[in-house]
């Protein structure tokens, strides 16, 4: 079903394909996007057992190139960009001077002095402005390529088989990237994803997306909406900006210290080093509900803390989520109580990931 015509909302190049496939269209971060097609559980299971394809063309893309590209990105990204080889992919966070998280990002090094960074859809204008502001003094070009770019995520145990059948050469391995011709069309293929399953992400010219989408569906890929994307990522404890990450908190308490190399001197590094040295007062932890019930974002944790993400796990059959809790309550096995609309639900801090194949 199509959404009511709203000229203020954007559409990806695949909007008509979503409608034709029976997608339920909703407003997501200013975009008309499919929240589900056949149903959340059915789509979730399709990715866990077969292959699903997601339209993530609402994500933003920033190209950075020039003699100082590496030095510039080293200054603004939390990870060690000098370790990123040509054809590599790297996760990092973009932070304010006080350490608050502006966004979490994936950056691909496509040539010696050229990089592509993928931003979250709702944060793209803010991220682009931050990149351009911080670029002062560097011999670097910062280009917004979001409008000309489409992005598909093909995920699941059969995902590589489906894409390989359309590729002119072997696909990049996990956390690697490279140019390939998929269905005869040139694009960047990356061994990354947001589901905990194997697969690839395809970054291409916007006009090529419908061709590739249709080819993948003909090869058995199921279209997957935003709702199943959320349940899949939460089962493996991947962060969602606006829920688990935000400007008011830093990455150390969010459990992303592994992606923060403070000795590189990136923006926010001093604040993060101080938090790491002192120990964060709160930590983001995954949890499972012990009985019936589902906790949702904003539900308070009794004794201190707050749920940031929560859902019913299609794979586990129980309520799961993530919450910021006092550091003393962050140990795996710690009992929690969560106030769910006035009713207390017992929960337990669990190990990551919540779901394993």
UniProtKB/TrEMBL annotation:
Q: Which UniProt keywords apply?
A: Aminotransferase, Transferase
UniProt-listed PANTHER family:
AMINOMETHYLTRANSFERASE, AMINOMETHYLTRANSFERASE, MITOCHONDRIAL
Read off the lineage from the record: Bacteria, Bacillati, Actinomycetota, Thermoleophilia, Solirubrobacterales
The terms under GO molecular function for this entry are:
aminomethyltransferase activity; transaminase activity
What is the name attached to this protein's record? Aminomethyltransferase
Q: Where is the GCVT N-terminal domain?
A: 14-262
Q: How does this polypeptide assemble, per the annotation?
A: The glycine cleavage system is composed of four proteins: P, T, L and H.
Q: Which purpose does this protein serve, as stated in its record?
A: The glycine cleavage system catalyzes the degradation of glycine.
Annotated positions binding substrate: 201
The GO biological-process annotations, alphabetized, read as: glycine decarboxylation via glycine cleavage system
Check the record and name the InterPro entries matching this protein: GcvT (IPR006223), GcvT/YgfZ/DmdA (IPR028896), GcvT/YgfZ_C (IPR029043), GcvT_bac (IPR022903), GcvT_C (IPR013977), GCVT_N (IPR006222), TrmE/GcvT-like (IPR027266)
Which EC number applies? 2.1.2.10
Q: Which Pfam families match?
A: GCV_T (PF01571), GCV_T_C (PF08669)
Among the entry's GO cellular component annotations, what is one? glycine cleavage complex
| EC primary class | transferase
Which reaction is catalysed here? N(6)-[(R)-S(8)-aminomethyldihydrolipoyl]-L-lysyl-[protein] + (6S)-5,6,7,8-tetrahydrofolate = N(6)-[(R)-dihydrolipoyl]-L-lysyl-[protein] + (6R)-5,10-methylene-5,6,7,8-tetrahydrofolate + NH4(+)
Family membership, please give it.
Answer: Belongs to the GcvT family.
| Record domain Aminomethyltransferase C-terminal: where | 283-355
């Amino acid at each position: 079903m199509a959404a009511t015509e709203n000229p203020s909302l954007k559409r990806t190049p695949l909007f008509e394909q979503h409608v034709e496939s029976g997608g339920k269209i909703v407003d997501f971060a200013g975009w008309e996007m499919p929240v589900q097609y056949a149903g959340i559980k059915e789509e979730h299971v399709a990715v866990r057992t077969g292959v699903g394809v997601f339209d993530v063309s609402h994500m933003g893309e920033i190209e950075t190139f020039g003699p100082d590209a590496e030095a510039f990105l080293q200054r603004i990204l939390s990870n060690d960009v000098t370790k990123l080889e040509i054809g590599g992919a790297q996760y990092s966070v973009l932070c304010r001077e006080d350490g608050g998280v502006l966004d979490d990002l994936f950056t691909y090094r496509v040539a010696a002095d050229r990089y592509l960074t993928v931003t979250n859809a709702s944060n793209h204008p803010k991220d682009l402005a931050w990149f351009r502001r911080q670029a002062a003094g560097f011999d670097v070009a910062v280009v917004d390529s979001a409008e000309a770019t489409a992005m598909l995520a093909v995920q699941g145990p059969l995902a590589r088989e489906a894409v390989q059948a359309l590729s002119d050469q072997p696909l990049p391995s996990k956390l690697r990237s490279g140019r390939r011709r998929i269905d005869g069309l040139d694009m960047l293929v990356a061994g990354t994803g947001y589901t905990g399953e194997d697969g690839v992400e395809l970054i291409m010219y916007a006009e090529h997306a419908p061709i590739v989408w249709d080819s993948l569906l003909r090869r058995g890929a199921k279209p997957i909406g935003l709702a199943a994307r959320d349940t899949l990522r939460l089962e493996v404890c991947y962060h969602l900006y606006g829920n688990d990450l935000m400007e008011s908190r830093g990455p150390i308490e969010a459990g992303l210290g592994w992606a923060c190399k403070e000795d590189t001197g990136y923006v926010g590094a001093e604040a993060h080093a101080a938090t790491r040295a002192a120990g964060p007062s709160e930590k983001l932890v995954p949890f499972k509900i012990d009985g019936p019930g589902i906790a949702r974002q904003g539900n308070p944790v009794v004794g201190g803390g707050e749920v940031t993400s929560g859902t019913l796990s299609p794979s586990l059959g129980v309520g799961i989520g993530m919450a910021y809790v006092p550091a003393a309550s962050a140990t795996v096995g710690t009992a929690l109580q969560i106030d769910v609309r006035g009713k207390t639900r017992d929960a337990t801090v669990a190990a990551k990931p919540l779901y394993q194949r």
